[in-house]
Design goal:
The protein has helices spanning 27-35, 44-53, 59-62, 64-74, 130-137, 147-164, 171-178; strands at residues 9-11, 14-16, 19-21, 40-42, 77-79, 86-88, 112-114, 117-119, 122-124, 143-146, 180-183, 189-191. It is α/β, with parallel strands linked by helices and 195 residues long. β8 and β9 (122-124) form a beta hairpin.
Length: 195
């Protein structure tokens, strides 16, 4: 069933400070946390408990995810993630979901993998930056349209612009200008939490 797969990731509950916490971290902050790489790494459990024990400063002003991330920055640490620490949305784990190709240089720094589309007898693979994809997954308004249909329309538009040798807008800007917001079906996006 089509939807907007939010949140992208849910985090495991943690006992800290005599309380069971269910970390509520925004999609944008979740991507930053999963991608953060520092020389010093600690477990998610240890990091989260340490942050809570420190008083979880700035949580009220910044929100849980940003405050936790700032605490990690201050202590110059990242998280040594384990599979049980988080769960990606089930739409990203469908048997039809596209997978990142380890030999594809273009997708090395990207969390999301878009299912290739066929436009004008050409197979096309579109790459979308993490920040843009998070925005697309969380668009609050617009006429709902199927994500892959939008991708195909955009690619056809890009082909036309190439003929004219005109500059092309980024996919996110094009979608926003169309007054639409994408809805997604299982198998349209893959998500690589760690790399």
């Amino acid at each position: 069933m089509p939807c907007r797969p939010n949140p992208i990731v849910t985090f495991a509950p943690i006992w800290a400070e005599n309380q069971l916490w269910h970390p509520k971290i925004s999609d944008r902050q979740a991507i930053l946390l999963l991608r953060r790489k520092m020389e010093k790494k600690v477990s998610f459990l240890r990091a989260y408990r340490g942050w809570r024990a420190s008083g979880a400063r700035e949580e009220r002003e910044l929100g849980e995810g940003r405050a936790f991330f700032r605490w990690l920055q201050k202590h110059q640490i990242s998280i040594d993630w384990k599979e049980e620490d988080f769960n990606p949305h089930p739409y990203f784990n469908s048997p039809d979901s596209p997978q990142h190709d380890p030999n594809d240089e273009m997708s090395k720094e990207m969390s999301f993998c878009v299912k290739p589309v066929r436009v004008q007898d050409r197979n096309i693979k579109l790459y979308i930056q993490d920040t843009d994809m998070v925005t697309l997954l969380n668009m609050p308004y617009g006429h709902e349209e199927d994500f892959l249909e939008l991708v195909m329309r955009y690619v056809a538009f890009r082909f036309q612009l190439e003929k004219w040798r005109a500059p092309a807008p980024y996919f996110l800007n094009w979608v926003t200008n169309q007054g639409v917001r994408p809805i997604f079906s299982a198998g349209q996006l893959g998500f690589r939490a760690l790399y």
